[in-house]
Structures are given as structure tokens and as C-alpha cells.
Amino acid sequence: MNILRNKYRALYDIDGISKEYLVKIEHELQIKLPNDFREISSFYSGGDVGGKNIHSFLFSDPTNLIEETLRIREAVDLPNRFVVIAEQAESIIVMDTENKPSIIWLDSVEITKLDEQDFIAKPDVWEEFSDFFNYILDDEEEERKY
After folding, report:
1. In terms of pTM, does the model score above 0.90?
2. 140 three-class SS
3. How would you classify the pairing of strands 103-107 and 124-126?
4. CA–CA dist 9, 5 (Å, integer)
């Protein structure tokens, strides 16, 4: 995890959240956050990385992880094990807190198919949150080269 921390530090200021915030996220969403997500949140609290606007982990921000997850859960009966990480143009990125792959980036219209994983368009997936985070950091490094 130190490699990701150092990679992030080379691009951004460290901006993590406290363990108390993590406990509140888990309590509010009734989930157990993966260990790699917990570790990354010690230096990253959401926001724009690599052109992906990840929902804030902070409750004070209007578009935060908890509120967006609860909103999508209510709108489409999203199973509780999923956390909404980001919403991109016509797509959504979720974290499955119980199964692998952990990160699933799918077309928004297929959000109701998450439980069965019976997608029309093949989603992008990452085994762990840390794999996804590394991917968006790579994108940021590429963007900064130009």
C-alpha cells in the first residue's frame, strides 16, 4: 500500500479521512469496507483522479459516498453489499464489499443486473479497490505528461 501512497503523494496532497469516518460509513451503509479501501482512505478522501470524479468519503460534501449509495439503493433496489463509488457519463462504478471482483464499472442502465451479473455490455472490473485506484493514478500520470 505504501507504493500507492507514494504514487498518490507525487500527484496530490495527502487528504485522508479518520477511522471514525470509516466506522460511520460502515454503520450508515450497513457494510464492512474492504481493508485496501480502508488503507487508501488514510491518504485519499475521494475527488477527481485521472479524470474520474470519485464520490467524496466526507459527509460534509454534497455528493458523498453515503448519500449517493443510499439514493441509488432506493431508486433501483441496489443490494446492500454495493457502494456507489462514482457516476460517470452513462455509467456507474460500484464496489462489491463481499465478493470479487470488488470494483465493477458498468453501464448505468444495467445497475439492476448487478446481483445476477447478467450484463449485456461487459463491464470493466478490478479484483480489489487498490487495483482500481492504481488504474486511475496511472491515468492521472498519463494526463500530466501532456
Report:
1. yes
2. helix
3. antiparallel
4. 6
